[in-house]
Amino acid sequence: MSPHSWARPLYRIGQVVGTLAVITIALLTAADVVLRYFFNAAIFGAAEVANALLAVLVGAGLIIVAAQRLHICVDLFDAPLRRRLPKLYPRWIFGAELLGTAALATLLVQHAMHTIDFGELTPVLEFPIGWVFALVALLVIMALAVLLSGWRDEKMHQGEEK
Amino acid sequence: ETKLLFNVFVPPGHFMHEVLKGWAQDVEKVTESRVDIEFAAGSLAPPPQQLQGVASGVFDVAFAINPTIKSKAPLLEVSSLPWLVSDAEAASVAAWRIYEKHFASRNQFPDVHLLSVFNFSGGQLYSTTDTPINSLDELKSRKMWALYGESADLLKNLGISPITSPAVQVSESVSRGVVNGYFGLILESVIDFKTAPYTKSITLFPLGVTSSGFSMFINKRKWGSISEADRNAIMKLSGEALAQRVGKASKAASAAALSQLKADGIQVIEADPQFYAELERAATPSYEQFERTAEKAGLDGKAVLADFRKEYDALAK
Amino acid sequence: MTAALIGFAILIALSFTGMPLAFATLLTGFVGFGLMRDWDSAVAMSGQQIGEMIVNPNLVVVPIFILMGELIRRGGIADELYEFGNALVGRLRGGLAMSTVLACGAFSTVCGSSVATAATMTKVAMPPMRRYGYHDSLSAGTVAAGGTLGILIPPSIPMVIYCIFAREDIGRMFIAGIVPGALMMTAFMVTIALWARLRPGVAPVGAAMSWTQRIAAFKKTWAFVVLFLVVLGGIYLGVFTATEAASVGAIGAYLFALARGSMRSGREYLDVIGGAVGISAAIFAIASCALVFSQFINVTGMPFALMELVNGWELSGIQLVLAIGALCILLGMVFEALGILVLIVPMFLPTLQAQGVDMIWFGVVVIILIELGLITPPVGVNVFTVKAARPDLKLGDVFAGVTPFVLAMLVTAALILIWPEIVVGLPNLMR
Ligand code: NA
Ligand code: NA
């Protein structure tokens, strides 16, 4: 993403939240092992907290994916398409990413609302998991904003090699 | 004609597939094919989201394990209480009768119609070391996995902190040797979830530590689109009839599993009476909890339990 | 059946337009399901599947293993592995290339990705091979092929994803990859030896080392040995679950990186760890959208139809596996690892399970064929990775260089098809 983009703070949030989530998962899991082996006392529900953090990590990661355009693509026809359709092709890719991210956000909002409504609880800690999905949905909406902020860059660079 | 999509979340090869296929064929027969039931080729939703899947119409018919719908139907916990049942057939029929008599009028499911409730056999205790677990001291010395719900709660009441998860994840802990005992699985799950090769002995209880209870339901809109005569015909095949069908199949599966496990060289012992009595005492909080739940719903929990025991005892003979 | 095949064709066509694989899969799966049932249920189902995937307890290992791989790349462990490999086989004709294979294999035991393995080993192994006059074809081919070991030798991200779909035990699957991984390393070394014998010009003879030098080189690999013991030893001996091994391993890798002067600024944390988080999210996007697609396949009834077909033709399990293998090789020309898993596994899994095929064994076969796809033209991700790390290489040279290794992989796959014990022997011993 461009260094002056208005969405830069959102990108930073994605990096920080994602980094904290993955560090916490690793430390929590390792601590659980140590406690279990040396003190025969597992951290109750540690795995469930790690699961919830995984969801947060994916949401935050999608912001990074949006900013760095990290989606995995089949680029077999990338070069010829870029040559033949210098305007249309980059816009198509950008539009597809925009649409896909928007779809993910919508589906997650829906799913979060359903799950909260339904009162679904995690099996061990009996935590309402819907709120975790709501947080992930928020992060994916931020990813959408980060992607949108690249629209102007995309127009400027269209037709050029990435 | 009404087409119904039936989702079965248990893995292929589980006895429930056969039972439910038989039920579906009977439904098609009595409705003269006005109701046509198709099965999804693989489970369309994870186990905890069966009710949600039916309510939102992802599929039309499904069954769910009761703890996953606890927030909607806490009273169904009754048939899963510790040291209450072991015979799946008697437990299933009793659970349906108690449901009809005490719970049905409380209309717990707004978006779905309940077709039946049923139970599997009672959960047992397993050791993966050469020493069987048959005393409280031995149990307390172990690193344990417990089926989440009643089995895990019971160990917590005894001051043991188990690793706990749904049954499908038991192998992750057992096969790695992360634990050296596990608690609450029924005998056929030991084979289905691949923990048999690591298991050295089984401690059988007179009544199971818990018996997984299930509910089966159909989407309300779809149910309404079926004629009343056909609905009545379907309910005749469901309810108590289906409960008995499932219970019988679970009983047969447990018996088959027990002989296979024995043939595999796994030692099978009866629980020591003193050990069992101590475990029974540890279940008191679960019963108190159920009585509170019943009270909240305007029911006398003790009376419901007494009713349940009476039905079960008569059936289990 | 028809609906599923149309969906399959549309998915391939969409992905050829350059649309991100995740979104092509989501779109096809969502629309297909909506048409088979109705739109409300498509929305509910898709949300449920995606939600389930991102809180799946078995997938917690994915970001942790990716992080561990990134930290290890910072710690310079790959250089030491290469030196030790060189101390062992460097004096043979083609010895530096063989050392590269050994180092790739060793690095694969702590890294779950083929691309990361290839990228790391290109930087480590290409310069010395050039210095000693190795032909670019041989050296680049070795690194590109050696890098594919990253997903066969545990840990392996595609194996984790496969296990989610196949409902198999990840620890068991990991252990199942060890012997085939060693076999493939051997096949690669034999390939290099034959090549160097037939065309002595491509690979000169190296200098012999004394035993003291060898021992010194081995001592330097202690950081790797520690991590190796923690991760694989921990899983194998049953001390850890895969997630726990990954967590302890990642903390270990972090300490090594720290001790070697890396990870000293806040920015580096965000770049390295944030980078791992980004890669993980891209993987989760594909995996969860694949789940949506597989639910569409489930309602088309295709697995049932396929089962009838298999029964009607009286195909045996092995014939079915061979047919799927051929399809994998075709798809591998264009799709990378996850793409193949996404396309193949949901289509054939129920049928294979019904045929009683050992799904761990099948998984390893699929992983090997996916590895093949990583180095076959026109799209060979590992070949591109080597080229990207060494832009002066000619793409044609690299593709020519991987050809003998493609044969070696096919031989390995054939051996595994003939003797399944190569795969299932070790996990069965674990009991
Ligand atoms: Na690996
Ligand atoms: Na390829």
Automatic annotation (TrEMBL), chain A:
Cross-referenced InterPro entries: DctQ, TRAP_DctQ
Membrane topology label: Multi-pass membrane protein
One Pfam match: DctQ
Segments traversing the membrane: 12-31, 37-67, 88-109, 129-148
Quaternary structure and interacting proteins, as annotated: The complex comprises the extracytoplasmic solute receptor protein and the two transmembrane proteins.
Role noted for this protein: Part of the tripartite ATP-independent periplasmic (TRAP) transport system.
Name assigned to this protein: TRAP transporter small permease protein
UniProtKB/TrEMBL annotation, chain C:
RNA-binding among keywords: no
Bilayer topology: Multi-pass membrane protein
GO molecular function: transmembrane transporter activity
Transmembrane segments: 94-118, 138-162, 174-196, 224-257, 269-297, 317-348, 360-385, 405-426
Record keyword Lyase present: no
One Pfam family in the UniProt entry: DctM
Subcellular location(s) of the protein: Cell inner membrane
Domain (TRAP C4-dicarboxylate transport system permease DctM subunit) ranges: 8-422
UniProt-listed InterPro entries: DctM, TRAP_DctM
Main location: membrane
Keywords recorded for this protein, A-Z: Cell inner membrane, Cell membrane, Membrane, Transmembrane, Transmembrane helix, Transport
Cellular component aspect of the GO annotation: plasma membrane
PANTHER family: C4-DICARBOXYLATE TRAP TRANSPORTER LARGE PERMEASE PROTEIN DCTM, SIALIC ACID TRAP TRANSPORTER PERMEASE PROTEIN SIAT-RELATED
Protein's job: Part of the tripartite ATP-independent periplasmic (TRAP) transport system.
Similarity comment text for this entry: Belongs to the TRAP transporter large permease family.
Quaternary structure (record): The complex comprises the extracytoplasmic solute receptor protein and the two transmembrane proteins.
Protein name, entry field: TRAP transporter large permease protein
Organism: Thauera terpenica 58Eu
Lineage: Bacteria, Pseudomonadati, Pseudomonadota, Betaproteobacteria, Rhodocyclales
